[in-house]
Amino acid sequence: MLDVSEDVRAEIGEDEATRLLAGENAPGSYDCTSCRTPGDTERERTSTVLFVGEETAVLAFAHAACIPSQVVTVSEDQIQGAVRSITGQQTGATASVDVGAAPQQAVLSVTCGQVLLGDTLHPAVVVEPNGPIARPGSNGPGDDFLPLLIEQGFHPVMDVNQAPAPIEGWSVLLAMGQLHGILQPAPGGSGQSTSWWQAHHPLEVTDAWRTVANKTQKVLVYAAPVGSIGQQPREDLLRGALEKAAAQGSLVAGSMPLAGT
């Protein structure tokens, strides 16, 4: 009961697609790459999801009710991270971010939590650098993190109770049930995505966070300068830190769809 989309078929070839549909290479039982709960290709409709990097491709399976069969283009580092997540290597919470036209690397603190807007819980990702971010080519000591993000489509947050507007072309990559990165449009309008933020190792998210993300198919991404948010052990404390940063004019955000899973 496999679904193999035309895009996946084009990547893996007709012979492999035929073998999959005939059940020769189907996994039987599997862990859904989206919701991480068990699935069975013989009892329920299943989507084939192909993660493609520069040199490596990984074929995963998901409940058709969770996501459709599709090809997800990721960086080679991201796909290797997905492979590591399958083999059970440890996850971390550091990442790299390209904050401008010229790469400027920074270590980010990344926090995942749910934010209540009205009566609805939304999955959120909060990113904060470990130091000031200078504009590429600048020699000054200033922090241009927020202006750079606004130039790339992020929106200033005045009221955390208001859902941030979407950022065109951006998305959040949740693969194999773990957070792998945030993607932005590639320069030149090629239609491809590149990594804006990439986890050195896939980040674990809670079952509740993943469930809401799969239901809404979007994630709220907040960003603040160094020292604005800090490591908050509870979601109520995280919410308080976001509200304080917004009141100080030190918070930007955007709504992004899930990429692939």
Helical content stands at 10-25%
CA(first)-CA(last) distance = 20 Å
Q: Low-confidence parts, pLDDT < 50 over ≥5 residues? A: 85-105
Number of strands: 15
Roughly what fraction of the amino acids lie in strands?
Answer: 25-35%
How many strands, what sense, and barrel or not for the largest sheet? Answer: 9 strands, mixed
Q: Which overall shape is indicated by the principal axes computed on the Cα atoms?
A: globular
The number of domains is 2
Radius of gyration: 19 Å
What value does the average pLDDT take?
A: 79
H and E string: EHHEEEEEHEEEHEEEEHEHE
Structural class determined from secondary elements = alpha/beta
Secondary structure tally, helices: 6
3D structure, described in words:
The strands form three sheets. Strands 7, 8, 9, 10, 11, 12, 13, 14 and 15 form a nine-stranded mixed β-sheet that branches. Strands 1, 4, 5 and 6 form a four-stranded mixed β-sheet that branches. A two-stranded antiparallel ribbon has the order 2-3. The protein has helices at 6-12, 14-21, 76-87, 145-151, 207-216, 235-247; strands at 2-3, 29-31, 38-40, 46-52, 57-63, 70-73, 95-97, 108-117, 120-129, 155-156, 171-175, 178-185, 193-204, 218-223, 252-259. The radius of gyration is 19 Å and the shape is globular. The chain folds into two domains: 2-73, no CATH class; 95-259, no CATH class. The protein has six helices and 15 strands. Helix 1 (6-12) packs across helix 2 (14-21). With 261 residues, the protein is α/β, with parallel strands linked by helices.
